[in-house]
Amino acid sequence: MAEIIELIQKSHEAKKHSYSPYSKFRVGAALLTSDNRVFTGCNVENACYNLGVCAERNAMAKAVSEGYKDFKAIAIASDMKDEFISPCGGCRQFMREFGVKWDVYLTKLDNTYQKMTVEELLPVSFGPANLS
What we know:
It is built from four helices and five strands, in the order H-E-E-H-E-H-E-E-H. By secondary structure, it is an alpha+beta fold.
């Protein structure tokens, strides 16, 4: 439990680095690997909107670029008070690339959270095994 609280706190810290001058919608993510290493990411917007990068994909790309591909959990944070932040469809598919049996913590500004798995967020999904 303490591990998850710390992961959520790190996702809120990562949000502080968000580059979101257009939407003003800050998002941070903290990704926990199977060997307990944490990678953080934030959203990075671009004037050419479709070139922006979500916080979740940013954290996962950082981890993969350093040789980590086995994940236990990811926490996602935003400034929303009344609703839990949820990953976009593209991020759900990106997460799915690395398995369906790992946890996703959707948070609110007050650090409350809802725990789901990648499989729950993207049921009946297309993944690496479909290409074999």
